[in-house]
């Protein structure tokens, strides 16, 4: 028979080995490549923003320096004169239109009328006389057509008809 000696776990040091055991499976994953970690576009945009901020800070600092050197007087009156960008062009067009209108007015006023008003008045008076002559009952003064517009002359106005009207009344060209 063989002599076996009973062996305990503590003799073998198993609890220590179990406690100090490391996992055999690698769960870390792949390493991210360097070109993805850097994000160059983001860095470029950040640099541009910083340069804009630096420029603005420089401008503000120069304005503050100007204020300090000018004893801090504030221009708060806002006396800005409005200035149109196309005022000269509009003025030129207005002058052109004015000259054209004056030329048209001169042409119209210098032209003699083609209508002979006096002939029309004489013809109307003859027509009224004919109507009076051929009518059965003579017309009253209220029935006669009144002029719709009174024309005032520079001379003294009178209620009697003028000499030219009296002459045309005496004419009997029927």
Automatic annotation (TrEMBL):
Similarity section: Belongs to the CFAP97 family.
Residue ranges, compositional bias (Polar residues): 159-174
Renumbered residue ranges of the record's region Disordered: 135-174
Protein name: Uncharacterized protein
Pfam families to which the protein is assigned, alphabetical: Hmw_CFAP97
Domain of life (superkingdom): Eukaryota
């Amino acid at each position: 028979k063989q002599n076996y000696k009973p062996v305990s776990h503590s003799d073998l040091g198993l609890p220590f080995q179990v406690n100090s055991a490391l996992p055999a499976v690698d769960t870390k994953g792949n390493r991210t490549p360097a070109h993805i970690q850097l994000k160059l576009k983001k860095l470029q945009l950040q640099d541009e923003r910083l340069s804009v901020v630096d420029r603005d800070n420089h401008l503000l600092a120069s304005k503050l320096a100007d204020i300090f050197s000018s004893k801090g007087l504030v221009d708060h009156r806002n006396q800005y004169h409005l200035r149109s960008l196309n005022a000269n062009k509009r003025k030129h067009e207005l002058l052109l239109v004015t000259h054209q209108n004056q030329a048209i007015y001169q042409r119209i006023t210098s032209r003699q009328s083609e209508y002979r008003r006096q002939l029309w008045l004489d013809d109307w008076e003859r027509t009224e006389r004919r109507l009076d002559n051929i009518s059965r009952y003579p017309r009253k003064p209220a029935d006669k057509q009144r002029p719709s517009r009174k024309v005032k002359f520079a001379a003294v106005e009178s209620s009697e008809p003028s000499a030219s009207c009296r002459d045309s009344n005496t004419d009997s060209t029927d």
